[in-house]
Amino acid sequence: MELHQLRYVAAVAEAGSFTRAAEVLYLAQPSLSVQIRKLEKELGVELFERLGRKVTLTTAGEAFLEHARPALFHLERAREEAVAVRNLQRGKLAIGALPSVGATLLPRVLADYRAAHPDIELRLIEHNVSGEFERMVQVGELDLAVVRAPWGRPGITGQVLIREPMVAMLPPDHPLRDRAELDLAELSGADFVGMLKGSGLRALLESTCQRHGFTPTVTVETEQLSVLCGMVRNGVGVSVVPRLVAAGYPTVVPLDDPRDFRELGVVWRSGGRLAPAALALLDRLLAETREFSDVVPDTVDDTNPVP
């Protein structure tokens, strides 16, 4: 039994004639008759009683069509739903982001996305650890996640979004505040304000300082970027963060070592094409990060198996 045969039976029953049904279906009348006969042969019953040029449903035909019509209705609804997802008129999207990304990069991206696609159900999850996002993407809990590069969990792939230099955040009256660039070793004796142990930004602070020959003395730990900024602004200590994290803070000095940078990427499950809703958000992320990045991310080619 073929789907088109169900449609043909319904069309003939409605038209009351093979000729008129063939015209509605844009078929040759002999082809329509052949398909109906094939179905009747498969079922072992006649569905129509032929009365000259007119036809009426047999009792078996009425019983058949009683179930065929709802099936055709639900199939059409299924087609409409699939097209709506393709056209971004419906869908769901779950994205994960590090706090530094959620507070700076994503708000405008998501606002523009929501304005363009208001019927997409969007869910944002924030987490401090990139590895947890990789796991959530791998098992299908997230469609996309913005994580610190490099990523390495099996079953996921991704694309670099942004490479941004590290900067020193200083109190407004700090003696080094007017420098064009700063050797990080000059802050080796300072008190630092840092994010909590185990977070990506804390690990980045420590690895950057260690590359310059010292371990930072972190006197205040916080899990909130706003608290970190407030502590530095009021002279509690200094901090070293990626440029995006310091966006809007008034006293920022770039580091002079080109090795001091952070790369962020967006990851998704490997082995298939991104859903339309996820692909549209990825396009917006790539466009937005060109403004902040020292490298220009590639555009998405949706002709590939994965972008």
DSSP helix fraction: 40-55%
The whole-number mean of residue pLDDT values reads 86
Strand content: 15-25%
- Count helical runs: 10
Distance between the terminal alpha carbons, to the nearest Å?
38 Å
Supply the CATH architecture of the largest domain.
3-Layer(aba) Sandwich
Poorly predicted runs are 296-307
Family: Belongs to the LysR transcriptional regulatory family.
GO molecular function: DNA binding; DNA-binding transcription factor activity
Keywords: DNA-binding, Transcription, Transcription regulation
Pfam families: HTH_1 (PF00126), LysR_substrate (PF03466)
Secondary structure: elements and pairs:
Blueprint: H1 3-15, H2 18-25, H3 29-43, E1 48-51, E2 54-57, H4 59-86, E3 91-97, H5 99-104, H6 106-116, E4 120-126, H7 130-138, E5 144-148, E6 156-169, E7 191-195, H8 200-211, E8 217-222, H9 225-233, E9 239-242, E10 252-254, E11 261-269, H10 276-289
Parallel strand pairs: 3-4, 3-5, 7-8
Antiparallel strand pairs: 1-2, 5-11, 6-9, 6-10, 6-11
Helix pairs in contact: 1-2, 1-4, 6-10
GO molecular function: DNA binding; DNA-binding transcription factor activity
InterPro entries: HTH-type_LysR_regulators, LysR_HTH_N, LysR_subst-bd, WH-like_DNA-bd_sf, WH_DNA-bd_sf
Keywords: DNA-binding, Transcription, Transcription regulation
